Amino acid sequence: MTLLQVMPQDAPQDVLLRTRDGARIATLLKELGVEYGHWELRATVTADTTQEELLDSYRAEIDALRARDGLLVVDVAQLLPAPGPEWEERAAKARSTFLEEHRHAEDEVRFFAHGTGCFYLHIEGKVYAVVCEAGDLLSVPAGTLHWFDMGPRPEFAAIRFFKEEDGWVGDFTEDPIAQGFPRLDSLLAGDQ
Ligand SMILES: CSCCC(=O)/C(O)=C/O
Ligand SMILES: [Fe+2]
Ligand code: NI
After folding, report:
1. Are the beta carbons of 65 and 71 closer than 8 angstroms?
2. Is the pTM of this model over 0.90?
3. Which residues are 43's β-sheet partners?
4. Which of 153, 119, 154 is closest to 139 using CA atoms?
5. How does 144-160 read in b/e, with b if 16+ C-beta sit within 10 Å?
6. Minimum-distance ligand 1 atom for the alpha carbon of 150
C-alpha cells in the first residue's frame, strides 16, 4: 500500500506524519498542489511485457489524462529484477539517475503499473516521502524540488507523461539534502 512519511527538511529523523491512508494522502498532497490518484490495475507486468502491451492495457485512462492535461508524449520506464552482475550494475546506474535533488521544467506525471518507487518532495521546509505502488498515479507540479529512489533491487513499471520529448530531463540543484533522508528500503523497514 502507498505510504506517506513527512519530515522536516533539517531533521530527517523527526517523523511528523506517517500514514498509509490513501484518502488522507490524497488530501494532504492536494494542499501542496500534488495530484495523487489511483487506477484499477489491468495488467500483470513481466519481463516479456512490451511497452505497447502495457500502454494498450491502460489506453482509456491514458487518453483521458492526455486530453485533460495536454500531455502529448507517453512512454514506459521499466526495471524488473534479473539474475547476474550485469543487472546489478544496470540497477545501480538507474537508481543513481534521480537520487539527488532536482526539478523538471514540466509536471512529473507517473502511473505505477507495477512495483514500487519513492518520490521525495521538498516543499516549504518539509520533505514528503511518497512511496508509490502499483495503481498509483502521481502528478508533481513543474519546478517542485524532489528526488526519487527505486531502491537497491529496483522493480517497477511506470507510465510517464510529458508535454515535450525532453520533459523527463532533470535540473539538478547540487544540494546534498537527499543523502540525509531514509532511502526506500529504510522507509519500508519502518513498518517492521
Ligand atoms: C518512476 S519514473 C522514473 C523517475 C523519474 O522519471 C523522475 O523524474 C524521478 O524524479
Ligand atoms: Fe524527477
Ligand atoms: Ni489498489
Report:
1. yes
2. yes
3. none
4. 119
5. bbbbbbbbeebbbbbbb
6. 1
ipTM value: 0.90
Query: Ligand 3: distance of its center to the CA of 101 in Å?
Result: 28
Per-residue pLDDT tens over the stretch 131-140: 999 999 999 9
The residue ranges of every structural domain in the chain are 3-189
CATH of domain 3-189: 2.60.120.10
- Which neighbouring-strand residues pair with 161? 74, 109
Give the Cα separation of 139 and 158 in Å (integer): 13
Write out pLDDT tens, residues 151-182: 999 999 999 999 999 999 999 999 999 999 99
Location of C-alpha cell 502529448: 72
Nearest ligand, CA of residue 112? 1
Helix (H) or strand (E) segment spanning residue 18:
strand 17-19
